[in-house]
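Quick note —
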Amino acid sequence: MHEASLMRGLMTQIEQVIEANGGRRAVAIEVWLGALSHMSPAHFEAHFASASPGTRAAGARLVIETSDDVGHPQALDVVLKTVEVET
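Predicted structure written out below.
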């Protein structure tokens, strides 16, 4: 359930970036997975694949950075770093 909520929030952020840049869709999305986010790259990819159909993020290439720093202030988070937008 936590992952579904997290992915809905991420899709909203991505849509906002696309809109703000006058884009049609996202072609690449870069995220950072905190050490305590309970998301591996494979786990994130699976949830993204479930959440993105029907959105302007569908089919976007994922770039996933992971952290092993449990003391990082955002260690619990999944952070949207960049969205490459097609205009």
